[in-house]
Design brief:
Layout lengths: L10 E4 L17 H4 L6 H15 L4 E5 L1 E3 L7 E4 L5 H15 E2 L5 E7 L6 E7 L8 E2 L4 E6 L2 E4 L2 H40 L10 E9 L21 E5 L2 E5 L11 E3 L2 E4 L7 E7 L4 E7 L10 E4 H22 L6 E8 L4 E4 L9 E2 L6 E2 L3 E3 L5 H15 L8 E2 L2 H6 L4
Parallel strand pairs: 1-2, 18-20
Antiparallel strand pairs: 2-7, 3-4, 5-8, 6-7, 8-9, 9-10, 11-17, 11-19, 12-13, 12-24, 14-15, 15-16, 16-17, 19-22, 19-23, 20-21
Helix pairs in contact: 5-6
Length: 417
């Protein structure tokens, strides 16, 4: 069978697990996984992982096991050869990447593609360009980088240059997050000025910001002509420790269509109005804001925010990032995510109106900035939501481990504008 694909700087094929006989293996003709299926040989492990490290130290890429390549140049996929027990093989390589690659690869996805009921099939490995590198194998003590269609060892000068380049990229990402922090602060100050002269028992303004930014510089050409990049969502019901928890507001506003701004798609609200503000920029930045001006108190005079409000914004930002990944083939692009709450103390966090009297009181300084989170492709986002809930509760002085399950499949199927 011939496949119409060729190797590139971001695509590598391996027909089977690399193998070189070692002492004590006179009769072996293939890697132990192929012959006996109990473990992957050290040579095969290092050869495969060196390719992933090389991708991470360059521009990211994909390695496919089970696809033979031609001998002539440029090399192309020639035929398929299914590998035994591909599901377990994928797990073995994922574990090996954790064990022998340092620093840890922040964006790696290894999946099996079964071709028979017996479990034979192929393994697809994807890794993004990494901001955490340069990376090396602890087993060989070597750094690798992709040059053309091959992985090569890096020399000292290349390692130094790569380290400096990543430091500059890191500074740029920090500058973007700082700019979004300042923009949110300015918007909140506008809300505060608008609250002057209001009754003293009114609830003070509230602004919640969730921002996601690619950790490696990206560019979306003519983003203003790409309405398909805009995720359309709605309210949803999630599970919290096995109990249904409705996230209807502000998620029900996620069905709004975008407007065009300079190199951006936006859905904005005026500073003195209540509602959702959304942004998708040409550099891949995604932001969701919830804006509440000063308003008459419904139950007492304390400012308050609900877990559902914050969870909705995080879910919306994650779904928007996944929409970009799908439409732009950004499978290996890692994002960093920030969540921040601007308000005036005292501020309470509540699960619902029934629990208003027993709500949690934030003990952290306001504005509250949660730790920065990673959005790597293929991650379990339920873990992310549970972590954010835990961090919010910790900010109130409460230790808790809560299991959260969001209907991601349903939300992501809702698609673009």
């Amino acid at each position: 069978m011939r496949i119409a694909a060729r190797e590139t700087g971001e695509l590598e094929f391996k027909g089977t697990l690399p193998f070189v006989p070692t002492r004590g293996q006179p009769a072996a003709v293939a890697d132990r996984w192929i012959e006996k299926g109990d473990r992957v040989g050290e040579y095969a492990r290092d050869q495969v992982l060196s390719e992933l490290v090389a991708f991470a130290n360059a521009d990211g890429g994909t390695l496919v096991l089970g696809v033979h390549e031609t001998k002539d140049e440029p090399r192309r996929a020639e035929r398929l050869e299914a590998l035994p027990n591909c599901e377990e093989l994928a797990k073995r390589f994922l574990d090996a990447a954790e064990d022998v690659v340092e620093p840890r690869l922040p964006s790696i996805e290894i999946r099996a593609v079964a071709a028979s009921d017996a479990g034979d099939g192929y393994v697809v490995m994807r890794v993004g360009k990494s901001l955490a590198g340069p990376h090396r194998l602890t087993t060989t003590r070597e750094f690798y980088v992709r040059r053309g269609e091959r992985a090569s060892k890096m020399n000292v000068r290349e390692i130094t240059a790569r380290t400096l380049e990543l430091a500059r990229i890191g500074d740029r990402i920090e500058a973007v997050f700082a700019e979004r922090h300042e923009a949110a602060g300015a918007a909140y100050q506008t809300l505060l000025r608008g609250s002057s002269g209001k009754p003293t028992d009114w609830v003070k303004p509230l602004l919640v910001r969730v921002t996601a930014m690619p950790t490696i510089p990206q560019n979306i050409p003519i983003v203003t002509q790409r309405p398909d990049l805009w995720w359309i969502g709605r309210g949803f019901t999630m599970s919290v420790d096995g109990n249904e928890y409705k996230c209807s507001y502000p998620a029900r506003s996620f069905n709004q269509r975008p407007s065009v701004r300079l190199r951006s798609l936006v859905c904005d609200v005026a500073d003195q109005e209540e509602g959702i503000s959304r942004l998708v920029r040409a550099d891949g930045l995604v932001e969701f804001r919830l804006i509440h001006p000063a308003r008459a108190a419904m139950r007492g005079s304390d400012s308050r925010v609900y877990f559902s409000w914050i969870i909705s914004l995080v879910v919306g930002a994650v779904a928007q990032v996944e929409c970009l990944r799908t439409q732009l083939a950004w499978d290996a692009v890692e994002y960093g995510l920030e969540a921040q709450i601007w308000s005036t103390p005292p501020l309470g966090i509540f699960w619902n109106d029934d629990g208003y009297s027993s709500g949690l009181s934030l003990r952290a300084d306001l504005p509250l900035g949660l730790p920065r989170y990673s959005l790597a492709s293929g991650e379990d986002y339920d873990v992310l939501i549970a972590t954010i809930v835990r961090d919010l509760m910790n900010s109130c002085g409460v230790s808790s481990e809560i299991v959260c399950k969001v209907p991601w499949n349903d939300l992501l199927k809702q698609g673009a504008a």
